[in-house]
Structure formats: structure tokens, C-alpha cells
Amino acid sequence: MARHKSYAVAQETEPALDISSLIDVCFLLLIYFLVVTTIQKREMDVPMLLPGDRVENSDSDSIEPLFITVDEHGAISTGSGPSMMLLDTDASSRDLPLLTQQLVLLSATRKTPLVQINIHEMTAQQRVLDVLNALVGVGIHHVTFTDFFQG
Description:
5-stranded mixed sheet, 3 helices
């Protein structure tokens, strides 16, 4: 009789995965994205007065509003017709120093300044928010939007 040789079957072990280096890579990526992100300037809360909420003020009807025009390139000008002045033209800058300076003068001369904003249909939304932030920063809350573009 022939002898059968029996071979010992090697026991297979479960494969192991060392994830300690994976965790290090995840933390490095997290730190990288935290460092390279830019922090955007926070939008201000813009209180709105609806047409039905109009405060009865006899001298507000006689005051002519300040006209602010924002064109499709983001250039901001004030006034209307021949008295129109071009103020802030750099659309990449979110600070509007010339407009803010004029709004400070307006709020100092009038008790309740009125502002009417004319916006071109191709104006970037961020540029409109920059104008609203400048108005709220100065304390002007009586704002009207129009769909008529002058310029």
C-alpha cells in the first residue's frame, strides 16, 4: 500500500491594512485647504423697508434722492444726467472708498437720506451687494431699486 503523504495546509491570515499613514495624509490635506482658502468679507444685514411700511415724514417727499448707477462692468457713478460723477471703477475691489466718502457726506447733510439705485441687467450680484454694504455701513436704510438704466 502506498502511503499518502499529508501536507500541512498553511493557515491563511487575514490581510491587514495599516491606515496610520492615511490619517496623516488626511490631516495634511485638511491643513493645506485651511491655509490656502481666503476668508470672504462677511455680508452685512440689510434692513429693508417695504412700500407699505413707509414712514410718514413730510420733509422726505421734498428731498431729492441720490442716484447710484452700477453699469455692466461694475463701475459705480452717482448723480444723473450731466451731473453724473464716475466714482469706483475697479470691479475686483470690494471696498468702495469714493462711494463711501460721498455717502458719509450725504448722511451728514440730510437727516434721512434717500438713495435710488439703477442697476444694469448684466451687473454682477456681488457688486450690488458691495453697494448695499456701503449703504448699510454708513447707516442709510431708505433705498429704492429701479430697472431703468441711465447711462
